[in-house]
Amino acid sequence: MSGRLAGKLALITAAGQGIGRAAALAMAKEGASVWATDVKPELLEQYRGVANVNTRALDVLDDGAVREAIGALPPLDVLFNCAGYVHHGTVLDCTPKDWAFSFDLNVRAMFITIQSALPRMLEHCAKTGGSASIINMASVAGSLKGIPNRFAYGASKAAVVGLTKSVAADFVARGIRCNAIAPGTVDTPSLHERINAFADPVEARKNFIARQPMGRLATPEEIAPVVVFLASDESAFATGTVYSVDGGMTI
Fold first, then answer.
1. Residue 233 CB: number of other CB atoms within 10 A?
2. Could you give the C-alpha distances from 126 to 40, 170, 172, 179, in angstroms and in order?
3. Which residues have a catalytic role annotated?
4. Tag placement on the chain: N or C end, fewer CB within 10 Å?
5. What tens-digit pLDDT sequence spans the chain (251 residues)?
6. Residue 113 belongs to what domain range?
7. Domain for residue 234, yes or no?
């Protein structure tokens, strides 16, 4: 099959919905062989019959399961770490449990997936003279901008940026590219859940939209092309970079 990602093998976490799903479909359309994973296997049923997409239930908080899943595949050309969690509140609202879970899912899970995939990525690059791409989900909240009531989330996503740059710096000469994407507010099922948790969901949605200078939320399909770009050879000279797709939030 032709396409910008033809011949590439990709694994995506949290591919059951939202940005992960949009990215999986976009990468498959561009010819990649995609492994779409998610902690909720029922969400993966939607891929039945979709060309170039295989599925596997995967809890990224289970280190052994992550290593097993990645180890069962040939060397990855693309790893897209999309799984994440948004804690709502300030430092005064954050419990040690909230803090630990935020960092476990938003940062530690990436550490484990990268550590599991990287050795064979490096071997493959050395043998073929090619390259591999790691893409991490960061956020406009964190090192790029302080967002109210995003204390644990912003701190963990800032850590993702540091993780991304560190991996990029360590392996830039060995064929590995590592970049991050920092979206603004995206209209996903996860956002819907958070909006519905407010006493006044209608007002909450208006407030989310109001913080976007474009006056609207992004769609997952507007983030997916950036994932495809970073996965493709078109971004061959890009590494250690955070790509903001934020509707003007950081202008």
1. 12
2. 36, 15, 13, 20
3. 153
4. C
5. 689 999 999 999 999 999 999 999 999 999 999 999 999 999 999 999 999 999 999 999 999 999 999 999 999 999 999 999 999 999 999 999 999 999 999 999 999 999 999 999 999 999 999 999 999 999 999 989 999 999 999 999 999 999 999 999 999 999 999 999 999 999 999 999 999 999 999 999 999 999 999 999 999 999 999 999 999 999 999 999 999 999 999 99
6. 9-185+219-245
7. yes
Position 59 in a domain: yes
Read off the CATH number of the domain in which 130 is found: 3.40.50.720
Query: Is 110 buried (19+), middle (13-18) or exposed (0-12) by CB count in 10 A?
Result: buried
pTM above 0.85, yes or no: yes
What is the radius of gyration, based on Cα positions, of the chain?
17
> For residue 79, which amino acid is it?
L
Q: Which secondary structure element, helix H or strand E, spans residue 245, and what is its range?
A: strand 242-245
Asked if residue 210 belongs to a domain, the reply is no
Question: How far lies 67's CA from each of 73, 142, 154, 227, 247, in Å?
Answer: 10, 28, 27, 23, 36
User: How many distinct structural domains can be found in the chain?
Assistant: 1
